[in-house]
Amino acid sequence: xxxxxxxxxxxxxxxxxxxxxxxxxxxxxxxxxxxxxxxxxxxxxxxxxxxxxxxxxxxxxxxxxxxxxxxxxxxxxxxxxxxxxxxxxxxxxxxxxxxxxxxxxxxxxxxxxxxxxxxxxxxxxxxxxxxxxxxxxxxxxxxxxxxxxxxxxxxxxxxxxxxxxxxxxxxxxxxxxxxxxxxxxxxxxxxxxxxxxxxxxxxxxxxxxxxxxxxxxxxxxxxxxxxxxxxxxxxxxxxxxxxxxxxxxxxxxxxxxxxxxxxxxxxxxxxxxxxxxxxxxxxxxxxxxxxxxxxxxxxxxxxxxxxxxxxxxxxxxxxxxxxxxxxxxxxxxxxxxxxxxxxxxxxxxxxxxxxxxxxxxxxxxxxxxxxxxxxxxxxxxxxxxxxxxxxxxxxxxxxxxxxxxxxxxxxxxxxxxxxxxxxxxxxxxxxxxxxxxxxxxxxxxxxxxxxxxxxxxxxxxxxxxxxxxxxxxxxxxxxxxxxxxxxxxxxxxx
Length: 494
Fold this sequence. Notes:
Blueprint: E1 21-23, E2 26-31, E3 37-38, H1 40-53, E4 57-60, E5 66-71, H2 76-85, E6 101-102, H3 153-158, H4 180-191, E7 203-206, E8 220-226, E9 229-233, E10 239-244, H5 249-265, H6 278-288, E11 306-310, E12 313-319, E13 324-326, H7 327-339, E14 345-348, E15 352-358, H8 360-372, E16 386-388, H9 402-412, H10 414-417, E17 423-426, E18 438-445, E19 448-455, E20 463-465, H11 467-473, H12 479-487
Parallel strand pairs: 6-7, 7-8, 16-17, 17-18
Antiparallel strand pairs: 1-2, 2-5, 3-14, 4-5, 4-13, 8-9, 9-10, 11-12, 12-15, 14-15, 18-19, 19-20
Helix pairs in contact: 1-7, 4-5
């Protein structure tokens, strides 16, 4: 494999397997497994490669990608050759997104009635937030002569789950309304034909079921609103549609094509679709010919860990604390999945792994092993409500050890997090872990943190405090606890 150019190794872009990014602990290699799916044996194999070529740490990003940390540049070609030969990654040429879409793992409504770990009545982060719904989202642009052949898409969608509107455990939660993976594959095929899409461009495909992706920022959003139909959201809060799911890739591709053209004209000023002037967005929407529509109905926040009951057996969603694990832990988890008879593992945007098709007797042993390994199996675990970047020493720009501080916050601020609050710990202003707003955002600076309530890393802070002061003021009855809890959730960000 030929040496990478200085341009390819520049900092600040989206890394991949072929194009690593230099960090404070070596080179970061991001993996895009085909379809974001692995077998247990493949998970074990990737852990082994991370031990051989990296520093033994693996992460899952908020876009459901695996990352191997601490790779030596000298052995990077050997690592990539192995990943490609064993079909552990899916890479394509060009500077656009390696993975354009984000979908939730296809898990139906959760088990209820106290059935197993995490099986109780809480549909969200805890009983304090049960039934709490997140707000709505954005609009779209129009048709250009872009007719990629996605031949079997209509057939794939026709075979999507027929149990769409099934009630979940008597709680009134509906199941998936579309086959989100099939729609995402069709959008990916269209996206690869669009020249000049920014590497961070993202289209969320939400099946309308209980695993809502409302909390994830994106450029465009396709949300199922009924069986076989979606609404398309834009960053300014407008929605278009409804559109038959088989027809949805066309207007989405047209919007992306128009956006890419504007990005090519002014790449520094127009990085995301939200950067477009309103007049240009109006023109794009008008070109699609799609009518405006009301936002999709709000849904409760999703359960992001625990046991789920599906039409095809049991499933488990297991989280990595702040998206990071060591290779020994993942090897043991992969081995437990093999013994449990797991056929496939899907990467979760909640920085975890979804194990489907389990026999009922296999779920509890798998969850128990994961809990013993320090992984997240309880949907009320406060660590699920905190986003934290790699921090020191992994990041060259970091001004704090964000993950260590996040662990302290998860323990000290558990009562606040139980109310549904979200916290973002960022070791610098770049906001790598979460680029949207959080109820509380902490931005490292000069040994302390800028404290932002209901905002992002770039918003004006209330104060700059050291971590002990923040922990003290997040206790119930203290001022920061009150200010954050009174803000409620920040809602979805497109």
